[in-house]
Amino acid sequence: LLPSVFFSPRSGAKLVAPLGFLVSRQKHTLPDLPYDYGALEPHINAEIMQLHHSKHHATYVNNLNIVEEKYKEALATGDVTAQVSLQPALKFNGGGHINHTIFWTNLSPNGGGEPKGELMEVIKRDFGSFANFKEKLTAVSVGVQGSGWGWLGYNKEQGRLQIAACANQDPLQGTTGLIPLLGIDVWEHAYYLQYKNVRPDYLKAIWNVINWENVSSRYATCKK
């Protein structure tokens, strides 16, 4: 990214456009939840939701904006070393923002049950049954070592659904190529205040608030 050069109408002298003139970037913002903090109770309590959204997700958003400003400066000055050194923070905070933005919409106080229509058919096709799919995604999510996510994704090349686990805040599509449909956050901040260290209990409960309409909508969109 090189500075734009323009001429002063009075003096004819060359001026270099400041960085802000060159790149006007919309800052990332914390998305509103589509429901109240207490709406997912008793499955996920209000205290967890408030801290998770207003503190944890907000931190990823704030840090992502800071990292992007630094990255923009490194691009403008051609500092490749700085660009490389910033990439882990970009991946972590960018992934945190991407993942949580999906996660909030994957949940609903009117959720639970089973999906309908085409999504249900492809789940049966690719996993044998809904019960088998649920068991597999739960097992993958329980098995994440440390912090991370369990995902249902869409493999566009193969035209099939796939289950995957991602460590930390690694974004599914950016690290595996799978298009995210349903993400289950298994960082301890997503459940510890209510379920302590018993992750399987949290995973059993979360199925009661899965927003299958949202998952189906994401599936329909990625197939286009």
UniProtKB/TrEMBL annotation:
Which gene does this sequence derive from? Sod2
Which cofactors are reported in the record for this sequence? Mn(2+)
Chief localisation class:
mitochondrion
Which residue ranges does the record assign to the Manganese/iron superoxide dismutase N-terminal domain? 27-108
Enumerate the UniProt keywords alphabetically: Manganese, Metal-binding, Mitochondrion, Nitration, Oxidoreductase
Superkingdom classification of source: Eukaryota
How the protein assembles, per its UniProt entry?
Homotetramer.
Q: What is this protein called?
A: Superoxide dismutase
**Top class in the EC scheme:** oxidoreductase
Gene3D superfamilies linked to this entry: Fe,Mn superoxide dismutase (SOD) domain, Iron/manganese superoxide dismutase, C-terminal domain
Q: Where are the transmembrane segments?
A: none
Show where the Manganese/iron superoxide dismutase C-terminal domain sits: 115-218
One matching Pfam family is: Sod_Fe_N
List, alphabetically, the PROSITE patterns matched.
SOD_MN
A molecular function (GO) term: superoxide dismutase activity
Q: GO CC terms on record?
A: mitochondrial matrix
Binding-site residues for Mn(2+), renumbered to this chain = 52, 100, 185, 189
Q: Which reaction does it catalyse?
A: 2 superoxide + 2 H(+) = H2O2 + O2
List locations, semicolon-separated. Answer: Mitochondrion matrix
- Known EC number: 1.15.1.1
Q: What is this protein for, i.e. what is its function?
A: Destroys superoxide anion radicals which are normally produced within the cells and which are toxic to biological systems. Destroys radicals which are normally produced within the cells and which are toxic to biological systems.
- Describe the family membership recorded for this protein in Swiss-Prot or TrEMBL: Belongs to the iron/manganese superoxide dismutase family.
